[in-house]
Design goal:
The structure is a single chain. By secondary structure, this protein is an alpha+beta fold. Among the domains are: 145-228, Pdz3 Domain; 246-386 and 422-443, 2-enoyl-CoA Hydratase, Chain A, domain 1 (Alpha-Beta Complex), CATH 3.90.226. The chain is built from twelve helices and 22 strands. The strands form seven sheets. The chain has a six-stranded mixed β-sheet, sandwiched between helices. Strands 7-6-8-9 form a four-stranded antiparallel β-sheet. The termini are far apart.
Amino acid sequence: MKKGFKIVISTLAALLIICGVLFAVYKLMLDPHRQTLKPTIDSRGGVRADVQSLPLDEMLTFDQAKEDIDYVMGMLRGRHPAWLEDDNERVVAVEAQYLAELDALDEKRSDGVTVLEEWRSLCRIMHELYDGHSNICRSYSGDRYIDDVSQIIQYGAPVKINGEPTEDVFERLLALCQYETLEWAKLNFGDFFTNEACLALAGVDTSDGVTFTFDTGNDDLDAYCRFVPPDEPAEAASSSDDSKWVYYSIDDYNKIGVFTLASCIYDDEYRATVKEFFNSVSEAGVEDVIVDLRNNRGGNSLVANEFIKYLDIDGYYTWACHVRIGNHLIKNKRSYVKNEKQDPAFSGGIYVLTNTATYSSAMDFTMCIMDNGIGQAIGEPSGNLPDSYGDILLFATPNSRLPFSVSYKRWFRIDESKAGLPLEPDFPCRADEAKNTAYTIILNGHKKIR
């Protein structure tokens, strides 16, 4: 018995050692999250790296800049699914741009490289991937913004920046942006007008402020702006009230419930609000529900699963995905999920409002509703594509400390018959008309698809 006991103990000990070794190998060589930065979740559910990059005019040696660029390329090659896909033309383009950037920087070897120049080089490299979730950015506590946004508010985008046509600046900036759809790039271009670093990235001379030219409808108006810290004055940087990110209203007269989700944050507040909403829907005898996902830039995709729990359906399909683990691509087919139906279960019409700023997990929410025949979408196409890369890993370059993200999954559209197609709404209209359009459809007795 003693001999048998020793054999059992020895076997268990050996198994524990083997498991420990395998776990260590996984963490050191296979885990996608190895060497990553801890993510920080902002008030709108966005994920970012809490790291401060060097000032844009800080000088680096050529070797330091090359080390940074090689580090980014190493993470792309070692973590992004595209590098394990056969004959991916985007990978070829990225690798070619990488060599071109090194050649260009090598010509400045004796002069050194500014952080701004390195940032531009990395932007041009990552642009070739056309992955909106893999991007290079900048995070600096010394950021400055224009001191007056009143003309932008009144007249919209300027027609010239420092005398140069704005469309020329946009074309230059386009080659530095990471995006999947041109509409998404155009949407985000508006954010660049107020930020000194973003204007500098686009090649605008910001050394002595900036002059915008606005079309007033009569004569052109030139407006000179200084750059100041964001709290000097308060209106220097645009701000918004992020406190109401999930809320609802009940239209008792028309029997319509409107559920608004400005950010895909999956927490106790969200779960409680969804439950409270559907309780109110049941009590008021609501027949149609409008889900407003306009300007929702994503977050956690579990928000859709939680919402669907309160719908009277037996189950639904989720998207297929490829996950990169080390040098292996784990291919998961789309799967059918049995709905964990909650009371009260709603069986009326579902209409999702979208616009170009409906992105990432908010786009997934919409796709899940549309492709499963649960409801219909109204508004504009989403900012990214259903077939896209996502789920990001966060890093920072070793010398300039520029933060960047790399996707390690590839997602596929749920309705496989529409593979490669954008998420086109069932009822296209301008974003600001989407809610009224939904009311018109409902009140005109449009046939529900469930």
